[in-house]
Please model this.
Amino acid sequence: MSIEIFPVQGIPEVAPGDDLGAVILSGLEASDVALIDRDVVVVTHKIVSKAEGRIEAAPDDDAYRRLAEREARAILRRRGDLIIAQTEHGFICANAGVDRSNVPEGQAVLLPADADRSAHHIRVNLERATGASIAVVVTDTFGRPWRRGLVDVAIGVSGLPAILDLRGSPDTHDRTMHVTEIAIVDEIAAAADLAMGKADAIPVAVVRGLDLTGDGRATDLVRPPEEDMFR
Amino acid sequence: MSIEIFPVQGIPEVAPGDDLGAVILSGLEASDVALIDRDVVVVTHKIVSKAEGRIEAAPDDDAYRRLAEREARAILRRRGDLIIAQTEHGFICANAGVDRSNVPEGQAVLLPADADRSAHHIRVNLERATGASIAVVVTDTFGRPWRRGLVDVAIGVSGLPAILDLRGSPDTHDRTMHVTEIAIVDEIAAAADLAMGKADAIPVAVVRGLDLTGDGRATDLVRPPEEDMFR
Model:
């Protein structure tokens, strides 16, 4: 069974208070993508944050840094202007997820207050409008230790497991697999980014062909400190 | 432009000395996938390592640990049986990439000695046989700090950039984007894994619809120690 990833074009600039479900539906229509059961709608958090009013003034570098510090529950490392921080949700990323790219000059976008809830809200609206049973993933673009370059990861999910637990499944030699928990929503986020393209500003994609249902939360991905050897 | 990911089924068990190009071609034929220009053939390293004879005896836990230590250039952390090590290629991962899953009991598979070269070799063979201009990515499954669950990443590449450098591109508000280097081959590796499925043992997938050419190496992804805040 092959996987298909459709970019959703024609999404307009989003403003605080906008109904994201309606915005995404109009994009789907403009892109000629009709949702079907098991589709996964992947949404970059920036339009979610904007719709939820999570955008603030950051007139200069100092104001931007203070915003990042305010959004941080803990600061792990600091180098020059960059801080690596843990957000209130538990995610660890640059500047606690506060971002100035793709927003008007002098402003910064924060992460959604609860991106799992945001994903659920979008899902309910899209399901109501289309009748299809779908899932929603909200993403952000994170750096990683050890490996250069950024990748998209999941920060919110509804209607999918966050992690696919294959422990106990037999491997190809009929032995029980050991530590095999796949961060499936992070793989979905990365896959969707292939159809989005950073400079093209396509904030939504649909991943079709996965046969997954579940009830995970992106916060399931947060590694408990006692398991984490790299804080 | 949508992205499609085709699983390549019917790949037999691979043994040392096997011609991987021929093995993959027979799988493509069995799966009814004809390669076209710009296709990316994603191959899990395990069949690459097996074909290259990178498999050794590991009769017990002690022998397995010694093998991991031998393959490590540096050991970053150690907890119980698990070591987090840097490989000779520069990648940082569990047990220096030495793995006992999906191999016969009492054996362990090492990483390819040079997975970029392996990718190039497979690419040349597939291009010669099909006439299509393609790219090849060799993957492994890595854990990450801070986030639970494993994801597939690139450890070898041929015919693609490893990193997409969007620095200097205008963002949606016509400002120059700052630090935006996308680890595109890692996103391709993660996307391909969606079509493979761990327990199903599909070791090859084809990603179609990317419009990328380049000449990167997976070792481009290794973050230089002086840039890395988390060793």
